[in-house]
Amino acid sequence: MINNEENISRFEQLMGKVERDGKKELMNYIKNKTDFYKAPASTQFHLSCEGGLLQHSLNVYDCLIAKKESPVWKGVFESIPEESLIIMALLHDLCKVNFYIKSTKNQKTYDKDKVAAAEGWQRKHDSMGDFIWETVLKYEINDTMPLGHGEKSVMLIHCFMKLKTDEIFAIRWHMGFSEDKTQYKALGEAMEKYPIVLALHEADLEASNLMEDTDGNKEHKA
Q1: pLDDT tens digits, one per residue of 138-149
Q2: Cβ-count burial of 57 within 10 angstroms (0-12 exposed, 13-18 middle, 19+ buried)?
Q3: Which of the residues 19, 82, 155, 170 has the least number of beta carbons within 10 Å of its own beta carbon?
């Protein structure tokens, strides 16, 4: 499960290392004008729960920083200051603020305790066994600022704080080959020009696919 208070503290501590004009205004925007600390990271896949976006951002940071120890990436990371890595990782999905709305859906639950506690008329049966219908929370997309994905994050950050060129490229193209195929040529050129683009994309994939479940981080057995 997500410890949101701990995540908020860690996020603000990391962002405290960023010394750049406009950072204070950006943090004020994030804390007071958006749902960044409470929003999910997706509607139904990775971290589709309250606080998921913040957790995902920290996970991407951890995956990105871990690459510094790799001999493959050593030369790339030597020229990139810590505050740039913080900015790229923690703010790459700023586009998702004020993006999701809460809704509900009805779904089957086969939980034996819930089924046993239900009224007789509520219990149903199918090939998987006895179940009841349960109303659960879900998130839906409500994009009131349709400016794209990575490019939207860049624009939102730039409203408050200037980004360096490699930061712009990395955040803009962090979706990698999830982009439309018509963008592959530009994406490839961006990765060749700024390899950190590929590093951030990989960190994003590693976090969402290897670290994260729908309601929190996966528990990895030693």
Answers
A1: 899 999 999 999
A2: buried
A3: 19
The CA distance from 189 to 187, in Å, is: 5
Tell me the two tokens of residue 34.
């958006």
Q: Which of 195, 207, 147 is nearest to 170 (CA)?
A: 195
Tell me, what's the pLDDT at 137? 86
Token pair for residue 27? 């943090």
Low-confidence ranges of the chain (pLDDT < 70): 220-222
Contact present, 161 and 25 (Cβ < 8 Å): yes
pLDDT given at position 45:
85
Per-residue confidence (pLDDT) for residue 25, from 0 to 100: 98
Q: How many residues does the chain have?
A: 222
**For residues 102 and 121, what is the distance between their CA atoms, to the nearest angstrom?**
29
CA atoms within 13 A on the CB side of 16: 6
Task: Specify the pLDDT at position 86.
Answer: 98
What's the token pair of residue 152?
């939207």
Distance CA 143, CA 95 (A): 10
Q: What is the pTM of this model?
A: 0.89
- Phi and psi of 86, rounded to 5°? -60, -50
Give Cα separations from 163 to 8, 79, 136, 158 (angstroms).
23, 16, 40, 7
Gap between the Cα atoms of 14 and 84, Å rounded:
11
Can you read off the two tokens belonging to residue 210? 């290897």
Domain spans in the chain, listed from the N-terminal domain onward: 4-99+145-211, 102-140
The three-class DSSP label of residue 138 is strand
Distance of CA 36 to the CA centre of its chain: 10
